[in-house]
Amino acid sequence: RNQLQEAYLRITVSRGADGIFLVRLRKGGSLRSRSVLWCAGAGFRRLGVPGESRLLGKGVWNTCDEAPSCAGLEVAVAGSGEAAVQQAEALARKAARVYLISRTEKLKAHKLLLERFSRSGAVHLPGFRVSRLLGKGRLEAAELISASPPRAVKKIKLDALFTLIGKEPAG
Asked: Considering the entire predicted model, what is its pTM?
């Protein structure tokens, strides 16, 4: 499989006068087709703050795979959409404390999920964004800054942070 992917990594596509596409493969050879469908995929959007790259996989996660191991921990979810609200509500069942950090006051989720979230015990921190992640070898805290003036800074102790702020096209 990796060899197949490698063969197709770099291609060029051109369209002839007859309307047929010619796809030239990096390792030689070509394909002819009446249509070409490009599926670049998507990756999780990152916060882009100091400490994120260093702590990714060490308490900072872009997916929810690590959620089951958060029992009894102080955790946060960054985001305001359906996935973020759902994750915060689910984490609140096992974690010691859950924060939902969102730049906006309004959460973008369906009514039933918003009701479950409001009863979950998770703490919504609206109007804040993560500005820095702190920790030596593992996430220990997050520094938050208010999204609008006057700028207020808040530091919260964390064992885990899930960044669910959307996806972006790959490549």
From this structure: 0.77
Please list the ranges in the chain whose pLDDT falls under 70: 1-9, 65-67, 171
Residues 144, 160: Cα–Cα separation, whole Å: 15
Q: Tell me how far the alpha carbon of residue 71 is from its chain's centroid.
A: 21
Read off the tokens for 28. 């030689």
Joined tokens for residue 78: 């960054």
Q: How far apart are CA 152 and CA 121, in angstroms?
A: 24
- Give the residue ranges of DSSP H helices in the chain: 2-8, 52-55, 82-91, 111-119
d(CA 20, CA 23): 10
Strands 21-25, 30-33: pairing is antiparallel
